[in-house]
## 1
Amino acid sequence: VTAVVDNPGVTGKVMGTRVLRVEDPALLTGESRYTDDIVVPGALHVRIVRSSVAHARIVSIDTTAALAEPGVVAVVTGPPAVINAIVDALSHLGVTDITMPATPERVWATMQEAAVTQGDAR
Amino acid sequence: MRIAMTVNGRNEEHEVEPRTLLVNFLREACALTGTKVGCDTSSCGACTVLVAGESVKSCTMLAAQADGAAITTIEGLAGADGSLHPMQAAFQENHGLQCGFCTAGMVMASVSLIEEQPSPTERDVREGLEGNLCRCTGYHNIVKAVLAAADTARASR
């Protein structure tokens, strides 16, 4: 991505020659596009709400106020997102759901059940 | 609320929320995305524009505060024929940019800097640009570019 310029007396040689980057004019005039500059019609914006304390156990998350805000389409809290990820990861075993809380033991049991079910089907 | 200002010589009048920041007015209402939002907290200077000729971090100013003002953004620097402004040319010539994200702010702050100090020393440039962060270049070539542009500006005077 470079263009050869200023080549006094060194005809045909690139090594040791000063070059100017060809991408610079767009970057210098504001024409280049970064992700945040791209307008996607109908795009939804995600806002991540982090814990207000450094170390704590989440007992419950009340999403009613957030959902009541105008323009809010969905509020995704940790548990549903984690459950979705686990179910997605195990879907090739035939897992379609997992009961809360998704402890390692429960995940293991769900995988075994799915495996047995698949075995029975054969 | 209705806000009107002259941006790069063009009249821009838009209905926006009162809390709209100048940078969002420029990027969203005027669709001038050359001005960047880097930190949103006026630390990085990526959003620097000229308000009545003075450099301002546009994420720190409400659009309402700029109502009626004349604004210059990075899009307004180059000539109508596309020729680079001497500061933009100096940045390219001296390799004062890599990824380009800080560049709009750097260039706008530098234009204002040499307007105020036509003969800056290297130290003046470093101090003048302390409010603009660059994660790529290590600043040396940016400083070289600004000093070179200052020389060019004085020579053409």
Note: Chain A touches chain B at residues 20-21, 23-25, 27-34, 36-37, 39 (CB under 8 Å).
## 2
Amino acid sequence: MKIKSHEAAARAFISDGARTGWHDQTLWLVRHKRDDAARSIPEWEQLREWASGIKSHTLSHLDDYLRMFEERAQAKGIHVHWAWDAQEHNRIIYEIISSQRNQRVVKSKSMLTEECGLNSYLSARGIPVVDTDLGEYIVQLRQEHPSHIVMPAIHLKKEDISDTFHEHLGTEWGNSDPQYMTSSARTQLRDHFISAGVAITGVNFAIAESGNLVVCTNEGNADMGVHSASVHIACMGIEKLLPQDRHLGTFLRLLARSATGQAITSYSSHYMRPRAGQEIHVVIVDNGRSRQLGREDFRGSLKCIRCAACFNTCPVYRRSGGHSYHSVIAGPIGSILSPNVDLRAHSDLPFASTLCGSCTHVCPVKIDIHGQLWKWRQEITEAGHDGRAKRLGVGMMSWVLSRPGVYRVAGRVGRWMMRYLPWMVNHRWNLWSRQRELPVAPARSFRDWFKARRRI
Amino acid sequence: MNSREKILRAIAMNKPAHEELSLPDLSCTLHYEDVCRQFIGMMERIGGEVVYVGSRECLAEDLERERASGRLMINRLQGGGEERSMTAEELKGLETCYLPGRLGVAENGAIWVEEEDMGNRLLPFICNRLILVLSPDKIVSNMHQAYREIAMQDTGFGVFIAGPSRTADIEQNLVIGAHGPARMTVYLV
């Protein structure tokens, strides 16, 4: 299947103006909540600096810290697995589940398992997975993917969800009261939790010195699954490490404030040792991350803690929706992570940005997001993935602009055409004027005006 | 070469040069004059309730009232009972659960709860109403201080709990009581 370009998918999203406006405003409100939360901490900028520094240090010793994590976790009875790629990650998890008598699986939010396509891998082998985060549960019922890494169903209106719940859960037709719908989902999911044999979670932070795993949720769904089931499988990218437990202080202060404007999530769970009779498995996944670590310009993206502050502030994301980014992680951070995985397939994403820099300013770990977007553009152009139309257009422009005589003639012709034959430039083949109005052309150029002034 | 070796080797080849680890300077972090007041304010903002309980006797009366209501309740304030080995199935009707909290954090209203005090790790999540009992002199200003106080090596599971379970996944409408407790109360004793 051919992937729809960001431009084509965004065009479909913005065809409903009212909905686009609602999406934009909703996310902008979350950005405001983030601002209020950040302002309540006088040392906020210092905190970002510390977080960025701790992450940079960790990346510079990542292999040592991973070894330390493995050793400490194993000493406490946690099983540690290593997966080079998505396929191996899925196979490891499938093997763990296959050896269980109770193979009912509940999963809390994990973008890594989305990245690896775990749900479809397992269900193809007869193991259905129930996503338990409410937003993920909704998109799973609709056979969609999350459009936002913190608010997976933010692209949907409550009426859409009401229809979905009516169809799948038998809720009252037309009842779109959030309280009612949440409580219906709660009842359904409780049964899944109680009967689950395996609970899969992501990992927000893994601690090298202690082998501890930290998972943050508001709903309590990770814990409902983990403490009900006899097997806990935690999936983490290699970059999730922090050196010491006490570094969590800095990161937990930043995470929820940056994500939703909350001071902290309702639950910040620290899994340290299996309970009696429980197995804990950690799957450490590379899947291209060590390659990104080797790219000097882009390694900073591995500091990301997946708060999505850059999504909520991005003027392009807010108006084009997460599904227009044909990548697991949408938004500005997704657009610098995805080209590492497949440069050609994701070559349009670094261009889905105004380079306004707002993402960089809100990033809690100080990733230079818009700088990296700009650098990817250069690599993509260098590799020839920038598209023929653009290449031709830019080539022509540079030919004209580097010849003053040609430039002056072209300017005169252009101004005349815009004044007397506007349809010659304002037609449907001109990509630039599709969503823009051409300005009224002045009678003479700046150069002519300047020359005339000098004569006076 | 197995994947472990492959990953570690790739990282060793690709990692940047050594970056110094500088620890946060705690002297310039946010401190509150009146941690208790800040804690209570935060707790109310995140949908929790705070009740000052004058004495241990008042607490005993409250427990007695709850017991008399006939709903399933578990009290872990004086150590454990049979709930230790109860399954999710057996606990699903749990109405109220009393747990001791170890430490409160004023900046965000979070309370640290450890496995030894829960007995069963499911308790604070599966009950409908969670009551955490905390001593007001166990409240610190911020998370950095909290992590200095917590002895993580001594326990198998610990959690910061800040308010009831919540979600805003439907059009950003806040709904209290997503999967876990719909009510959370802090007794300051």
Note: The longest strand of chain B covers residues 129-134.
